[in-house]
Amino acid sequence: MSAAKIALSGGGVLYVEESHAVPLVSIAVSFRIGATSDPQGKDGLARITTRMIRRGCPGLTSQQVDAEIDRLGAEMSVDVSASHLTIHTQVIKRSLGAWVDLLVRLFGGPTFAEDELARLRRETAAEIIEARDSDRALAHLAFRRAIFAGHPYARSAVGTARSVESITVADVRGAFERTCTRGNLVLGFAGDVTAEEATRLGERFTAALREGPAHKDDVPEPAPLAGRKLVFVDKPERTQTQVLIGALGTWPHDPDHVPFSVACSVLGGTFTSRLMREVRSKRGWSYGAYARLAIERHRQSFSMWTFPAATDTAACLELELGMLRDFVEKGVTPRETTFMKKFLGRSHAFDIDTATKRLHQSLDVDLLGLPADYYDGYVGHVEAVTPDAANASIGARLSPDNLRIVVVGTKEDLFDKVKEKIPDLAQADVVPFDAE
Amino acid sequence: MTRDVEKRLKEVEKLNHAAGGDAKPNALWSYEGAVPFADSAVQRYRLGNGLRVLVLVDKSAPVFSYMTWFNVGSRHEKPGKTGLAHLFEHLMFNETEAFKAGEFDRKLEENGAESNAATWVDWTYYYENLPSDRLALAVKLESERMARLVLREPQVASEKEVVANERRYRVEDDVEGAANELLYKTAFTKHPYQWPTIGWMSDILGFTPEDCAAFYRTFYAPNNATVVIVGDVRESDVLAKVSAGYGALEASTLPVEDTHPEPPQGAERRESIKKPTTTEKIMLGYRGPALGDADHATLSVLNEVLFGGRASRMHRALVIDEEIASDLRGWVSTFRDPGLYEMYVSARAGHGTDDIERVLAAQLAKVKESPVTDEELARAKARLELGVLQGLDTANGKAEQIGFYEMVLGDPAAAFRRLDAYRRAGPGDLMRVARRYLVDTERTVVRILPEAS
Asked: Which among A423, A436, A370 is positioned nearest to A2, based on CA atoms?
């Protein structure tokens, strides 16, 4: 069941999902602009702007805001995706009114002080350096750039040291004025709150925003991939590697979106999937082995992800490429399809077992432009998938000859061995892990 | 006797009577009372074979969580065999007498289950979250693997490789993981908390099926387990099904735990390691209280004042004022025996751990010398309360709280008693625990240095 949907003054929309099981209220403040709208050379602007909102408003310094958030028993985090941004908050019920009052003050007139922005720029630069310690983060960043080369989806919501350094108060103020408008607002309340109370609070919040139309999505469709290309992220002393293999994936409005999702789950969506069985259970090569389809407003990626020991990397990559070819050429079996339909249909109970999860489904439908019955009709859509439909979708969406492959490892030990296991490799690039 | 208690005693009597005069004592229930839990209550039962069962009926979603907690963790291992408890977390998803390899997980998945397991120093647990009409399946699978696991060479060999890869992922190639391992290895010389739960690599690769079989026979038995069921279930249904599933299992003879307490440290210990990282990091471990110690909740409040969120003292000093750190956290270990009060700070490029230590020392001296403000205390308590409430959002979250506190403290509702203890903590209490535990001669320091330095 979808959350209650309520129109707000000025074009915004409010979703409310009520549950009084725990005295907590989640509030998601979303706007229909994301990282792809950052001006060229200003990657990271949407994220910096959103993080600046809590760093001072008339009458409260950044530190006083931090203290007030804690005093109320609240928390606040920022999530910037390609197409939208969300400030996730949660608060103890007794502080709900005071919490919304604080949000009104923060969004009504953020200070955007020069010294606070300078501090945040330095913090962000330090975080970018810190992120180099995560091989997984390095792999996923390189993968996104390889799959969406030249497309806005290749851009980083965090930004680069250089782009973040260039962001000015005028940039932040401009981004805030474009983004945080009534027309762009998608607001959500979940938990120990009634629809009536949420509407009243939602209107109070909306009144703090300036008038403005909803942002028009102008992101082009990503271009199909041609050939096999390897990006090797070179990092010293890796005893284990990160391996991502992928291509463009699916768009929720594709007629074969659900069949393709079911098929990919057979390949690597559960603990008994093909990848897990072959890579982990039979060979013990990687702690995890997954296939995943990401979704956004436009076509996103298909990926296979493993993290084998360095000594097993070349063999593991060869196995995965063979499995992918087999997946494309032979498809999935009726038995596998039936099994996966059972899993997806029955486990759906855990996609909707809390008010916050249900709210986020409604927000996703709105913010990602998903079909209206994407979640509400999910079980029925899955149930309708046939093996033929699943196999047709694999053939239509994937080609084992057109792939991007990312490996994070130590070049000296592995680069040549990895290349040997990729037939018809059109291009192989090496990127130092600390290149930016 | 309240009406609720009377009703449950009669239900148990009825079930035991229905089992018939020939029923084995192992399959007979006893009711051990209720423990208030938020606005409901956890009901305690025990089977004749020693299996403890805790039930919290929660109809907020048509699902339930089924957790089996075993009183075995890395503290029960011996040198040379470290990591065995964790290896079992993997092996338990393998072949049983009734289910071929892979069938256990397939059964769970085709019924829509979320399932996983976790091992730590004091305990191991397994769980399934299932739609509410699948209780029988959970009982069947869990009772089967509690007693009829098949441990053959191929499965053991394959899982050893998987665990070796998990170790590479979590320790060898993970800067913080490697430092944490070194911290505990250095801080503890007698107590088993000195070795990592995942085990030393040489021990992992050396396990035999015989090692596994001996461990299984010793620790995987109903009298060493607690089943926690939270969700949309009926208590009478739980009792009938659990009795039928586990009633034939025999209790084992559990060994007397032979653990040496850690002696006072007496002097600071320091280690450093070089890693392919771009910035220096530091990890400190002060001797901390056991979870059951009255000081634990108080020290946790102090930790919130020091490390909890952007308004905390350490964040303000290290990230905002001095701008020499990019990441930091503090945590009072939640172990059965005294553990560590851990602190971790990652320095920004251009700054070293000497700078970090200087600021840490100044801030720690302050909380020993003068009381924290009422505002700081109120913020810390509100943050802790938020954390407790967040843990109660799902059936799985509640089951984890109940199981964890039952295993470590013998009290399934201890989360709420801790919440009361947080609320009682005053500025003087915080100053006292700061003076008692933040003692330099009782700490261990691990520095992580970039390889180029």
From this structure: A370
What is the token pair recorded at A91? 């608060």
B40-69 residues touching A, CB cutoff 8 A: 58, 60-63
**HSE-CB for A164 with a 13 A CA cutoff:** 25
- Are the Cβ atoms of A308 and B165 closer than 8 angstroms? yes
What phi and psi, each to the nearest 5 degrees, are found at residue B286? -90, 145
Question: pLDDT, tens digit, for every residue of A249-307?
Answer: 999 999 999 999 999 999 999 999 999 999 999 998 999 999 999 999 999 999 999 99
Residue type (1 letter), A396: A
- The shortest CB-CB distance from A349 to any of B62, B346, B382 is to B62
Alpha carbon of B165: minimum distance to chain A alpha carbons (Å): 6
In this prediction the ipTM stands at 0.93
Distance of alpha carbon A385 from alpha carbon A383, whole angstroms: 6
- Give A 293-352 residues with CB within 8 A of chain B: 307-309, 339, 342-343, 345-350, 352
Instruction: Say which residues have a Cβ less than 8 Å from residue A315's Cβ, sequence separation at least 6.
Output: A285, A421
Which residue has tokens 């984890």? B400
Phi, psi torsion values for B331, nearest 5 degrees: -160, 135
**Residues B367-374: contacts with CB under 8 Å, at least 24 apart:** B367/B302, B367/B305, B367/B306, B367/B313, B367/B430, B367/B431, B367/B434, B367/B438, B368/B431, B368/B434, B368/B435, B368/B438, B370/B431, B371/B427, B371/B428, B371/B430, B371/B431, B372/B302, B372/B305, B372/B427, B372/B430, B372/B431, B373/B427, B374/B427
Distance in Å, alpha carbon of A427 to nearest chain B alpha carbon: 28
Q: Which residue is listed with tokens 């209650």?
A: A4
Q: Give me A339's structure tokens.
A: 């099994």
DSSP letters for A27-43: EEEEES--GGGSPTT-T
Q: A124-157 pLDDT, tens per residue? A: 999 999 899 999 999 999 999 999 999 999 999 9
